[in-house]
Specification:
Blueprint lengths: L4 H10 L15 E2 L17 E3 L5 E5 L2 E6 L15 E6 L5 E7 L10 E10 L2 E9 L4 E9 L2 E8 L9 E8 L2 E7 L5 E3 L3 E2 L6 E8 L10 E11 L1
Antiparallel strand pairs: 1-13, 2-5, 3-4, 4-16, 5-15, 6-11, 6-16, 7-8, 7-15, 8-9, 9-10, 11-12, 12-13, 12-14
Length: 231
């Protein structure tokens, strides 16, 4: 199996088990091509790593990957450090196009929960693109984190286009990243592109929660139907 570049990503993607069934004022231009048909594979395995520093589990059932974030403690990607529950695979220093289909619903009333996609250079340098809740609204946002400090690069505080399931996508071209979302997996809507200099070495879905009183943090169960990488 090739271990670098696009060929390596393809090889890993064919091995996964989470993929069997594989406008807004600020961004109304659809991305022209949808991700390719997801490929059958198996999960977990040697190219995947489950990270749950504050507790949590990952499992596979009915062709879905489930990330289980327990309540009663924080698992936030941004505060005070990257504590999110995530399942990641290594990637090479190449351009890529990665997308996930999230089947689990986001519930606005469940405040401070997140479900999305994470690209990591290391624990203090990474990118998140996620559906989040604040108790009233469902939002869509993207952050870059550099040396532990988070910067918001996109924030739709009232993501009225949200439907369940939802599709999230990130493409890389050098240091330029473009995030997109879709409600059907066919028509993609871009949000503003951004630049990020740290080179990602891991990528995968993540889920998190947060509450100023950690004992009140709500549980999250994220269901991912597929994860797809293409050149």
């Amino acid at each position: 199996m090739c271990r670098n570049g696009t060929e390596y990503l393809r090889a890993v993607a064919t091995w996964l088990a989470i993929m069997l069934a594989v406008h807004s004022a600020y961004a109304s231009t659809p991305v022209p091509a949808a991700p390719g048909v997801p490929l059958a594979s198996s999960f977990p395995g040697p190219f995947w790593d489950v990270v749950a520093s504050q507790g949590g589990t990952a499992s596979v059932s009915n062709a879905h990957l489930f990330l289980d974030v327990p309540g009663g403690s924080n698992h936030d990607a941004l505060l005070p450090s990257n504590q999110a529950v995530r399942v990641v695979q290594p990637i090479g220093n190449e351009n890529f196009d990665v997308a996930i289909k999230i089947d689990s619903p986001a519930v606005a009333a469940n405040a401070d929960t997140s479900q999305g996609l994470m690209l990591l250079a290391d624990e203090k340098d990474f990118i998140t693109f996620a559906v989040v809740t604040d108790g009233t609204h469902i939002s869509l946002n993207a952050h870059t984190v550099t040396n532990g400090a988070a910067t918001t690069v996109f924030d739709d505080g009232d993501f009225t286009e949200y439907q369940n399931p939802v599709y999230l996508r990130i493409t890389r071209a050098g240091i330029t990243y473009t995030a997109s979302y879709s409600i059907d997996g066919v028509i993609w809507t871009q949000v503003p592109s951004f630049t990020y200099k740290a080179v990602p070495t891991w990528i995968g879905p993540f889920a998190g929660n947060y509450n100023p009183t950690p004992a009140k943090a709500l549980p999250v169960v994220m269901s991912v139907n597929w994860f797809n990488v293409q050149e």
